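## retry 2 of 3
previous attempt timed out at serialization; input unchanged, resubmitting
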Amino acid sequence: MPDIDAEQFPNIYRAIRSRRWYDPATQRVSSAAFVLRDQEIGLSALKGVNCSPQACLAGLNTCFGELALPTERVLNLGLQIVEDEPDAPEFRENHAQIMGIPIDRTTPAHVKLAEDFASSLAEMSSLHYDRHEKFRE
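## retry succeeded, writing output
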């Protein structure tokens, strides 16, 4: 999987799968938006967005919009952002993954590191697009 080019893609985007991931009153992103789910090896991200209420480039049935993350800041955390492998059956040209978050959270050190990454990613994120205008105060 090739690394993403931070100059070509200064921001990456994460689909908002739950309304709880963003608080419009405080304009803060929840760290829950950056927790790996079971069976995931990385966090799904988009290299570019152009969504509308009719279409979601993330290909999700439930998508409330996108969060923007500065690519360089994600990399500065020591994480890697990789594009989909072109030969992979599930290849999507616009898709990437944030890699390096511990997938084996069986030790307290791995749990803490995963939580720290989720908090740091949430802090650097901002609301990019509100698909259904649900986050407006």
